[in-house]
Amino acid sequence: MAPSRIDTPEATPVAPTKLQSSQNPKTQYGDFRDEFFRNGYAVIKGALTPERAQEYQSRALDWLESFGLGFDRHDKSTWKKENLPQSWKGGMYLHFSAAHEKYVWDVRCEPGVIAPFAKLWETDELVVSFDTVNITLPQSIVGEYDSKPWPHVDQAPERSGMQCVQGIVNLSEAGPADGGLVVMKGSAPLFDEFFAANPVTGPTPWRTAKHKDFHPFSEADLEWYTSRGCELVKVCAEPGDLIIWDSRQVHWARFGESEVVRTIVYATYTPAAWMTDADRRTKAELFEHFETTTHWPHTNLYTHGKATVTVDGEERVDPLERDEPLTKPVRTERLLKLAGVIPY
Ligand SMILES: [Fe+2]
After folding, report:
1. How far, in Å, is the centroid of ligand 1 from the Cα of 179?
2. pLDDT value of residue 278
3. How far apart are CA 83 and CA 254, in angstroms?
4. How far, in Å, is the centroid of ligand 1 from the Cα of 164?
5. Tens of pLDDT along 39-83?
6. Which ranges are annotated Polar residues under compositional bias (predicted)?
7. Cα(39)–Cα(49) distance, integer angstroms
8. Pick from 107, 139, 202, 249: CA 20 to 30 A from residue 311's CA?
9. What is the C-alpha to C-alpha distance for residues 242 and 246, in angstroms, rounded to an integer?
């Protein structure tokens, strides 16, 4: 039976002061938070130096070459879909222990990446998501992807208020012609109003347990937002910049027309205090098994599982699957706290 919208996500303890700050337009911070609360997103310049971003991109490409399928970053004639392991939407690697490669954890532990989230949530005691990387080779070379826009939010309509803020650490250029994030600017604060006016009824086949914090939008829905003053913006950023957005903000990723290899790490942080003991145990177990999860750090902890292939009509584990990362992360105290393995 298709899962139904009647399911109610578990209650999440949310500090009321944080919600007030997100909903009180008179609050002035004098930093990126003003733009963030006004527009539902912000670009934080130089979370990493460009050199460090380039180094991390190089590690990401090492990883992509490590599957031995023929992809060579230095030889564009090898930039073909068949020379790459399977991914979602052209470059999101949900399997192969990708989320736990050392370089990905190194990015998540970067002080310049963590600091804006600590400021936003007003605590240094954070947990981070086990979501993954996106390495998308240009369509102009490898051919078209499924490039139809998929406007959505990553928060269930039943969750009221700001409960998750997502992040993209840019390891490559995201200019106007490059691939990158598109947001419906100003849509986050209209989240409750939208679902009050457009209640979700009937079967919602997309809503599995893993995808409960997700809702897709139609063209008419987008018009609902634009008629209230929202506008679509392609978010531009440079290597080393951090993009953050409220999970209630309507968004999707646009493929580029340039030859840039879009390379990003998704990194979302929320207060560790919001995690229940049961979720902490689940998260620690997911970490020990190098599983990749959703964007949510403290709840909605579901693995994407193993990559599969169909052979003679039978679904089997992709022979390229890995039980552990190629290069394991160093288990520092900082990392283990962010992973939820060690409590604060
Ligand atoms: Fe999303």
Report:
1. 15
2. 95
3. 23
4. 11
5. 999 999 999 999 999 999 999 999 999 999 999 999 999 999 999
6. 18-27
7. 25
8. 139
9. 13
Alpha carbon of 40 to ligand 1 centroid (Å): 14
Locate 289 and state its tokens. Answer: 């098994």
Span of 60-74, 257-271, 296-310 with lowest mean pLDDT: 296-310
274 alpha carbon to ligand 1 midpoint, in Å? 21
The greatest distance separating any two alpha carbons of the chain, rounded to the nearest whole angstrom, comes to: 62
Q: In this predicted structure, what is the pLDDT of residue 25?
A: 53
- Centre of ligand 1 to C-alpha 178, Å, is 18
Which residue in this structure is represented by tokens 């990015």?
A: 107
> Cα torsion for 269, 17, 155, 152, to the nearest 10°?
-90
pLDDT at 19: 47
Percentage of residues of the chain with pLDDT beyond 90 = 82
Write the class of the CATH domain 30-339.
mainly beta
- The alpha carbon of 295 and the centre of ligand 1 are apart by a number of angstroms equal to 8
CA of 275 to the centre of ligand 1 (A): 21
Q: What is d(CA 4, CA 205) in angstroms, rounded to the nearest whole number?
A: 8
Q: Which helix (H) or strand (E) holds 221?
A: helix 219-226
The tokens for 54 are 């380039």
> Residue 26 and residue 154: Cα distance in Å, rounded?
27
pLDDT of residue 141: 92
Q: Could you give the strand order of the β-sheet that contains 133-136, starting from the edge strand earlier in sequence?
A: 41-44, 242-246, 165-170, 262-266, 133-136
- pLDDT at position 33 over 90: yes
pTM over 0.90: yes
Q: What angle do CA 189, 283, 211 make, to 5 degrees?
A: 45
Tracing tokens 């934080």 back to the chain, one arrives at: 44
- Sign (positive/negative) of CA torsion 15, 18, 19, 20? positive
